[in-house]
Amino acid sequence: MNLTLRRAGLLLIALAFLAGQAPPPPEVSEAVPGQGAGEAEEASSASSSTAPTRPRVSSLPSGANVAIIPVRGVIYDFTYESLQRRVDRAVNSGASVIVLEIDTYGGVVTAALDIAKYLKDPTRVPVPTVAWVNNKAYSAGIMIASACDEIVMAPASATG
Q1: pLDDT tens readout for residues 114-151
Q2: Which residue, 6, 33, 87, 155, has most beta carbons within 10 Å?
Q3: Rounded to whole angstroms, what are the CA distances from 110 to 88, 107, 133?
Q4: Parallel, antiparallel, or unpaired for β 4-7 and 150-153?
């Protein structure tokens, strides 16, 4: 299980292009009974400013470091531990984006859930994550991919 840290090139440009195609999510503020519109906006902005967030892939500079981490074979507890070590090593080495190259039929559901929780936590993984489904991502594989910030699929790839 190797770790590749590369200068951003064609892959990051393609990922940024794909990420830029989707419009940004609309701002949603729910009015609480008894509050005016201004108070509801203050309440929603105060609660959203305290949670740590990751930058979007499309907002990264062109010289960003990209770590490509393969996730292949059966997903089980060792996969979670190995992925955690490789992501931590990539972040400590200065990676700006983590790309998980996924090719798996699946595996243990609890391990996939642990990986998904780990990837979604911005305090543990402070950089954007991209799932690159390069062939197949079934069962636990698509659970892991859906926990990433972006999903990019090869034209002949399959999920389920």
Answers
A1: 999 999 999 999 999 999 999 999 999 999 999 999 99
A2: 87
A3: 21, 9, 21
A4: unpaired
